[in-house]
Amino acid sequence: MLNQTILVGRIVSDPQINETKNEKKVTTISLAVQRSYKNEEGGYTTDFIPCVLWDGVAQNVVEYCKKGDLIGIKGRIQSSLDRIEVIAEKVTFLSSNKQAYQN
After folding, report:
1. What's the distance, Cα to Cα, between the start and end of the chain in Å?
2. Which of 23, 22, 8 is nearest to 86 (CA)?
3. pLDDT (average), residues 1-10
4. Domains plus CATH for the chain?
């Protein structure tokens, strides 16, 4: 069996680092990912997917990424009773949103 997913999308808000009781670093980001087909109105629907990043991956994203940056995430899907999220194993920085830095 295989649980692996790859997403490419833009970060919805500036990532912030948190620390668990065990001193592990973690951040949760929402990734805006457009669907690959147009809807009835002729536009693309966007999904907002929660992604959890741990330790070094979390630190790098918080340090180098801002709202609007385009990133790739390789990870696995994890579900609980009322939530589905992606646990990131690898993040690739694809581009930055220059408009986000002009504000």
Report:
1. 46
2. 8
3. 96
4. 5-36+45-101 (2.40.50.140)
CA distances from 13 to 4, 22, 32, 67, 73 (A): 25, 26, 10, 4, 16
Asked if 9 and 36 touch (Cβ cutoff 8 Å), the reply is: no
Encoded tokens for 102: 């002009």
What residues pair up with 84 in beta bridges, in sequence order? 79
* Cα separation, 1 vs 40, whole angstroms: 35
Question: Cβ atoms within 10 A of the Cβ of 1, count?
Answer: 2
Task: State the Cα angle at 1 between 83 and 28, rounded to 5°.
Answer: 30
Predicted TM-score of the model (pTM): 0.85
Tell me the β-bridge partners of 5. 75
Q: What is the CA radius of gyration of the chain?
A: 14
Provide the pLDDT for residue 83: 93
pLDDT band at 103 (very low <50, low <70, confident <90, very high): very low
